[in-house]
Amino acid sequence: MSTYTIGHNVSGLAAQPSDDTELRLVRVDKIASSTVNLGLDHELEITTACEARVGNVIVVRTLTDNATYNTLELVTGRMAKINPGDIIAGVLGYRRALKGFVGDVPESVNVGDRLSLLNLGGLVGRCLGRHHSLSNAIEVEVIGMPVNEGRILNIAANAVAMRDTLDTTAPLVLVAGTCMNSGKTYAATEIIKHLTRAGHRVAAAKLAGVACLRDTLNMEDHGAIKTMSFLDCGLPSTVGLADLAPLAKGVISKLAESEPDCIVIELGDGLLGGYGVDTIFGDEEIKRATAALVFCANDFVGAWGGRELLSARGVTIDVVSGPVTDSQMGMDYVKRELGLDAANAVNGGEELGSLIQAKVAEWAKR
Asked: Contacts by 301-304 with C-beta closer than 8 Å and gap 24+?
């Protein structure tokens, strides 16, 4: 087995192996947060015989820069600047971001292929498009895939199993929204903070979207006793998942082991989109376990549309939050025209927390 090290200031491999062996030893500069459950070392044995499979860990060398999207979230949660020439361990996956990059796992992956970094968590794939506010995604060159005892590492190893039934007596608080950047995480963390301050043990999860630790770390910072995400189920994103409910039940049942009084669930992205969020509202068991649904919308049409879409599934919104509630005009519209409670998480976090606490108490009585 040949060994070489790749540095920051070289245009290629610092030391090419003298023979054509398949296994090599590489030292990576940065380990992306999407690999967090594997506990990777910076020195990795890799194979050049790659496999194009969702969740496979992939080692790449960055080729280009991006002035507006050039940071990587590490396994520690710290954000690090990406430099051309960096060697990064990331994960193959799909992304369908309305305000970010769109990308796929290619049909095949070979050493020397040029792919792209698709998100802050180190998702790697073939970039198909981007939001107009972003520059081109950072291009990377495939070096290989880490192996353990000859097998390519995949984040599905030791993953939490999906379940057909829900095993918890704790009420759920769901936070959904119209799209990314609609205020969901802010609302979820404010709810966690105020429930915690009221004496509740709160667990939390993010159950849709693309791999990144910052939202669950934010939940912990606001008092959550335990957090999880779809990453714990071995998924780098929830793109292409036919039904989110089995994943949700697996994660929620695992969180229940921490004996929380309440579980706050953020559903990343939007009610409509490529991450399967809408499918969770078709599950009767999850609906029965839900004490409150907070819906975050950017504007009047989003708030109205969310109410209509969820009503068609037999789901009632309990509180509207997000940018639509940033002004008194929006608050009045939601209350008067939609007949729903409204609370702004930024300026009215205590009111939002009180509304949810009342809903949780009401659910417990039932």
From this structure: 302/178, 302/179, 302/182, 303/333, 303/334, 303/338, 303/340, 304/337, 304/338
Mean pLDDT, the chain, whole residue set: 92
Query: Would residue 76 be called left, alpha or beta, if left means φ above 0 and alpha means ψ between -120 and 50 degrees?
Result: alpha
Phi first, then psi: give them for residue 43, nearest 5 degrees: -100, 115
Using CB atoms within 10 A of its CB, is residue 282 exposed (0-12), middle (13-18) or buried (19+)? middle
Query: What integer pLDDT is reported at residue 21 of this predicted model?
Result: 45
Helix (H, G, I), strand (E, B) or coil at 231: helix
317: pLDDT strictly greater than 60: yes
- State the residue for tokens 């950017």: 298
Cα–Cα dist 285/249, whole Å: 9
Length of the chain: 366
Q: pLDDT value at position 7?
A: 30
How confident is the model at residue 266, as a pLDDT?
97
CA distance 83 to 206: 29
Q: How far apart are CA 328 and CA 330, in angstroms?
A: 5
DSSP H stretches of helix in the chain: 184-197, 214-221, 245-255, 284-289, 300-311, 328-337, 349-365
Give yes or no for a contact between 269 and 275, defined as CB atoms under 8 angstroms apart: yes
- For 213-245, the pLDDT digits (tens) are 999 999 999 999 999 999 999 999 999 999 999
CA quadruple 122, 159, 218, 320: dihedral sign: positive
Q: Mind listing the pLDDT tens digit for each residue in 151-162?
A: 999 999 989 999
Contacts of 41 (CB under 8 A, 6+ apart): none
Q: Per-residue confidence at 6, pLDDT binned at 50, 70, 90? A: very low
Distance between start and end Cα atoms, the chain: 64
DSSP secondary structure string for all residues of 169-197: -SPEEEEEESSTTSSHHHHHHHHHHHHHH
